[in-house]
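Why do we care about 3D structure at all? Because function follows from shape, and shape follows, mostly, from sequence. That is the central idea of this module. The next example makes it concrete: a single protein chain, its amino acid sequence, and then its structure expressed as tokens.
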Amino acid sequence: MSGSAIELVDLIARWIHVIAAIMWAGNSMLFNWLDRNLRPGSRDAAGGNAPGALGQIWLLHSGAFYYVEKTLLGGQPMPKPLHWFKWQAYTTWWSGMALLIAVYWFGGRALLENGSGGPGSHAHAVWIAAGSILLGWALYEGMQRFVAPRLPLAANVIWIVGLAAISLTLLHYLNGRAAFLHVGAMLGTIMAANVFFTIVPSQRELVASVNEGRGADPAVSARAKRVSIHNNYFTFPVIVLMVSNHFPAMYAGRFNWLLLLTLIAAGAAVRHVLNIRFTLPSWQPILAATITASAIALFTIMRVGAEAPSVVAPALTAPVTFAEVRHVIDRRCAACHSSQPSDLSFGAAPGGVMFDTPEQIRAHAERIRARAVLTRTMPPANKTLITELERAIIARWIAGGAGLK
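And the structure:
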């Protein structure tokens, strides 16, 4: 398949994935908001309390008034048509997995394995990546089905410790960028599995119960709602991990493991404040404090990691000419960053960055410094075998003003 065809397939899959994810997350947040804002009780046609009613709410949107009622249909017939919410979750998951497989596992469009300390082959890295997703889901499912009913706190603690352990393992064996995305994929898989294995089967039980004239079982309803709330808390961490691939200072630093766990904790904490704000009079300053504390923590970890690089480049004192830098760029970077790249693994000119002319190289000097010197994420996993001396040459040239002489 040609490079253009691969990019088109990649684009379409991402398009579908983002649209489905927006719909899924939007539904989750809307129904969670409804549950926390329902007014108690409801009225039937005769003015009495409707059987099975759990609450009602009036909404104003798009130029009209909407009335929404939550009920377990106590003794009432099944309404038709009945709209189910499941395909957004399934579409988000399969399109995301298709991207993960095409880009990282078999497509070769992004590096999966860690160049240092990682597995001996790409195949080993694929097994570790796939196994982490399956293991994360199995641990979560086991805790929720067998431990949480009796010991909910223990189940949560074990799951959080397991999440941290899996994350650290992925960061050891996989490229940092790939590891962040795979932790996000693991959480996304758990969310989709909650819909497939718990929420939808529970809803089928509710429908069957109502059709038999027994009304919906509150215990079944509560089971589905519990994992739906879990999905709601996973949403913010998954989103930030999915976009983390644009920020090498996050996934490539010395303390990337701590940044990853902080991002997850910050996302869940912000989501929690937003969930309880309806019963929390001073929620605005608490939300602001949570966001501020999270930002300070992330910034501090990034700065400390940047100040203590794992590898120290040779120190150069003599001036560096542009010709020396151009030689390094041509050998180590231009294979991808060119209008006519010789390596199409990442598509033509990734990020629109090209080093064909001296002016283009100088215009991207700070970006080169960030990626090749500070975070050391370029070349990816040192694909072109850049040396420490060559990184030092680039750093010295930029420190001297990035001139063209």
